[in-house]
Structure formats: structure tokens, C-alpha cells
Amino acid sequence: MAAGRFLNTSAVLYCALVLAGSINHAHGQKLGVCNGAPFPWSPFNSSTAPLNMNQLATKGVPDDPTKGLRAVTLPRVRRTQGDSSGQWSPSPYCLREPRNHGMQTERQLSALALCLQNDVGCASSGARAEVTAAQAASLPSMKLLRNLRRSKVKCVSVTRTSRCGRLVGNVDTYLPVGKFYPQSARPAMDMPKKLAGTCALIANGPLTMLNRNGASIDAHSHVARFNAASVGSQTLRLGTRTTHRVFNRPRGSEASGCTRRRCTGIRTGMGQQLSLSASETWLFWNYESVSDFPTMKRLYRRVTPRLFSPDASRAVYQVYWQARRDLLALGLGPFNCPKALSSGIHAMILMAILCDQYPLSLYGFTYDEAQLRSRGGHYVSGGPIMFGGHSWTFDAAFVRLLHLAGHATVCTADDPTVKTAALRKGRAPRDPPPPSSSSSRPSSGGLRRSTLSRRPIPPAWYRRQAAQRAMSRRSNSYG
Predict the structure, then answer these.
(1) pLDDT per residue as tens digits for the range 215-269
(2) Which residues, including other chains, have CB under 8 Å from residue 23's CB and lie 6 or more apart?
(3) DSSP per position, 381-448
(4) Burial of 16 by CB count in 10 Å (0-12 exposed, 13-18 middle, 19+ buried)?
(5) Which of 35, 123, 232, 331 to pair with 136, CA 20 to 30 A apart?
């Protein structure tokens, strides 16, 4: 009995130590945090001396606030239609949440709860990083996520096979009446249940433009992005590789109305442009998107559109609602009831389950409630555009929870001195200074100085493209 308890606690601590060491589970060797990201986020002071892990594993986690918390099976509720077509309403699940939690003052909150709030709470709690990480990994939602990683999801996407061909039983979405998902439009085989190598998930928020993370992003085996977010000319910050994309219903509809090579978003202020450079897997969690699949397959020959299987959606729902119960039990909240789970939640949980080597690298994700006000919106938009139907406060706390529990690493630390307007323009003070004019000036080689300093006139095609982009930005800003 004691040996089993020791092994269980050691496994939790080993999972939590990914927070500080970024251990490669496949080969047991240390890697750079986020594959060499220049400014990863860490809520703790790395200069503190580490604890004796053997002693901690033997005696257990001190002052563990997670004792007594149990995993609750996803309840069966009466399904009602949500605000959008093809979407079940999450309201019945919110009504099943405990109502006597989330009302504690800061003095009553544990060190883990304080650290899940903001960075000031991590510093003021006085707890060590290993203890707080072990407590986060002991939460029922994080244990459930580890179990899903080991047991694997039966089917990740809907296919032609009888094993993964069912559409009924999805707790998140349904196929509207009059719409069909024919066998010819479905992929023949399911996508891998384990993605070999490291995985990176790139957000669309302004924080993504803060650092030059392009090299570290491209160093991952799998790179997932959202919707039709384009890299454009910001390859130094955003990288060049894309293997997966996660779409919501409106952005998927926009992608189906694109030309073969480029896609300009219709949504006001988004101005998204999509340029495919390699084969990609597009994942859609809303079943109403099946009406756009034929157009996508015709426009993008190298793209494989896939629907979340009922098993994958149920796994996302189980982790999400269990995490809400855990945070409410710790005294956080209350959180508003979402009208729909965000694409970020769908992608984070699914990629954390599928990725073979963890932690999952998160770039540009909001991890503080204050950032929701200062860093809201998208890096390609002209202003804050955030759907009011998501529980953004909980989503930010969930990012911190994944980081503390070792399932993910936040690879972009915020710098409050950098204005959001500068991030959207692609300018950040953290960039290295440009070379001096004396060192970068080429030798004349017998040519006159006026010939070297004269800028070449761009062709008419480039001028027309620049005018169209400027007109699109003006129209989006007034929309």
C-alpha cells in the first residue's frame, strides 16, 4: 500500500516537474523550454532552491487543498438548442455546478488558488513551485487529462469506417435537420491518436506578436493554428510551419468562400489572409460546418477537413467541466456560463491528449484576467474583438492550470510596457536592435553612392496589392 502511494505521488510530481525542467518523456533528456523560446512565462522565481523530491514524495504534498476533491462523471442533461444552429447549449451543465463555492476572500484562498488567479498571487503565497505544481497536478481534472492521454480517445474524427462513423451522441454539437455528411466527403481513415514529437499551439491574440518565436515554433513536430490566421510577413514571430488548424463555425464558413490560394476574412476587423504552403489537417468542432466541406475540398486539394468525433467532444467536455468544478472548489470564481466552449479550449484539451511528448507549447495565450482587458482581440484585427459568449475568465485560469500541472507551457510572457497597438503593428521593443548603418552599408564597388541609396520602384502588381490591403484595413476599421 505504501509503495503504491509512493509511486502514485512520484508520478504526479514527475508530471509537475515538467513546469521547471521541460523533460522529454520519450528519451528522458532535458530540452530547452518551448524549444528555445526567448521569453517563456514562469509564475515563480527560478532562483529558489529546489525541494528534496524524495522527501516530498514520501510525506506527500503539504497542506494539499485538493484532498477530498473527486472526479464527477459528466451528468446526463436534457439537451437544448444553443444560440447558434448546430450547437447544444451548455446551460444545463452550469446548473449542475456547486453554488456554495467561489465566494472566499483572498485570505481564505490556498496558495494554489492564489497562483491560479495571477502572478501576484504566486509571489505572495510564499509556496514553492514544486509544491504548487504537485497540488495542481493532483486536481481531478488534471488526473482525468492524464488518464485520457494513457487510454487514448477511441476516435478523434468522424470517418467512413463503422468504428468512427457515428455522429449521434455528441454532447457539444449536432447535425442540423436537412444537412448530411455523406460518405464521399469523409476521410477514409482516422487521424493518429498520438502525434509523435512535440506540439505547439499558436493563438491569435496580440501576445503572439510580442517576441520573435518563429524559430522555436518551427522546431516543433506539429504546429496548430486557429481559423484562417496567416503568418504573412511576420515569420520571425509566428514561424512558417502549419500542420493543423482548428476552426469555429463562422471562420470555417469564411474559409469556404476563399480563392484557391488566399482567403480574406469577412468578419469586421479580422482581415485574415490564408496562404497554404503544405498539406494541413483542418479540425471542425461544430457539425454545421459539414455544409462547407465540399467547397473546401475543391478549393484546397492538400487540406483534409475533419469533424470532431463524439468521443473527442466528450473528452473535451469532461475535462472542461471537471476543471470548472475544481476551481470553484478551490474558492475561485464564480465564472459566467458560456454559450459555447471556445476553439482555444477545444484545441488545448485535444492537443494535450494527442501530443506524444508533453508539455504542449502555448504561444500568445492569455493567462491573466488583467490581460483580457489590455490584450483583448486578435493580432490581425484593428481593435478588440472577443465573443461575449465564452467564459474568458475561466479560460485564462485554465491556461495557468495546464501550465502548473505540467500539461502545457506558456511560451510567451507578457510585457506590460509594450502597448497593444504596437503589437498589432508588428513592432515590439524586445526585438534586437537593427545593425548600424556603418556596418550594414555595402561597399560601393566603383558605383556612385546615389545608385546604391536609390530604392527600386516596385512593380505595378505590388502597388495594387498594397492599395487593396490598405483599403481592406480601412473598411474593416469602419465596419
Answers:
(1) 999 999 999 998 877 776 677 888 888 899 999 888 887 777 654 445 544 343 3
(2) 14, 17, 29, 30, 31
(3) SSS----TTS-HHHHHHHHHHHHHHTSEEE-----TTS-HHHHHTT--TTSPPPPPHHHHSPP-TT--
(4) buried
(5) 35
At residue 308, φ and ψ (nearest 5 deg) are -60, 135
Model-level pTM? 0.77
Which residue blocks in 293-337 are alpha helix, DSSP H? Answer: 293-299, 310-329
Q: What is the pLDDT of residue 70?
A: 66
Give dist(CA 360, CA 353) in Å, integer.
10
Task: Identify any residues that bridge with 246 across adjacent strands, giving them in sequence order.
Answer: 226, 283
Q: Which helix (H) or strand (E) holds 283?
A: strand 280-284
From residue 195, alpha-carbon distances to 149, 181, 320, 354 in Å are 11, 26, 22, 6
Quote the CA–CA distance of 226 and 468 in Å, as a whole number: 24
Cα angle at 304 between 303 and 306, to 5 degrees? 140
Residues in the chain: 479
C-alpha pair distances (Å), 147 with each of 287, 354, 453: 27, 12, 63
Interaxial angle between packed helices 310-329 and 140-151, expressed in degrees from 0 to 180 and rounded to the nearest 10: 160
Q: Are 433 and 225 a contacting pair, CB within 8 Å?
A: no
- Name beta bridge partners: 223: 200
